[in-house]
């Protein structure tokens, strides 16, 4: 049985070294959950799990969301493998998963099956740490702001000139108004930002857009960011409630393939 940890940067990311049996035993599940919440990202380098093992390990940490084939979803831009590949291009921009829902997923677990020869790193930013470093004055200013999030706003990054039909399709997913500052049950606060953030409610439109861009710039500065350079067999978990993430660009025909499992959300954006 092995289990040791090593921080990957001061503010975000911890590597856990453990063998598969130890991870599947669930013995360290509470500790892993705790590290995940504190550090945003947990990395298991070249642990080489199978799909079944990844699913079982996910199940030790919380409630698994059943998606894809037998609970494992294939993240690839190859439309032969994934008919929704086009929608995944939104992942090249900073975002939080599930902002059009009131209870977003708790975490995603991604395992590298095949990598692109170029690009395809994944970056994470710690939105708890970004909040903590705001001045008291800014914290007070942002405390009660509400931001409207939409799929349309995020997809505009990918298709800046959509057809009318495409726009109508995006709009079938209702927009969602969320607090800018997520006040978690734990007592900690994080920022809710990213590509789905369309405008600030009750604020002049341009001023609100400026604030959202300024805050995204601020929250994705190097001190808040961990960039994962993948090796095949790596498994990475991120806390979707306290981080934003994005993939760096890679060729669409690279064959890059990641297998993903998800943990169901346990807390709404309103805490
Ligand atoms: Fe995502």
In brief:
With 271 residues, the protein is α+β, with helices and mostly antiparallel strands.
State the low-pLDDT regions, or none. none
What portion of residues belong to β-strands? 25-35%
Q: How would you spell out the order of helices and strands? A: EEHHEHEEEEHHEHHEEEEHEEEE
Please give the radius of gyration in angstroms. Answer: 18 Å
Shape: globular
Bound molecules: fe (ii) ion
Total strands: 16
| Number of helical regions | 8
Describe this entry's structure for a reader.
By secondary structure, this protein is of the alpha+beta class. The protein has helices at 20-25, 29-39, 51-61, 127-132, 136-142, 151-158, 164-171, 205-219; strands at 3-7, 14-18, 41-44, 64-65, 73-75, 107-114, 122-126, 146-149, 176-179, 181-183, 189-191, 197-200, 225-228, 235-239, 243-247, 257-263. Strand 1 (3-7) and strand 2 form a beta hairpin. It is globular, with a radius of gyration of 18 Å. The termini are far apart. The mean pLDDT is 96. The chain binds fe (ii) ion (FE2). Residues 91, 95, 97, 245 line the site of fe (ii) ion.
Keywords:
three-stranded antiparallel beta sheet, 271 residues, binds fe (ii) ion, 8 helices, alpha+beta
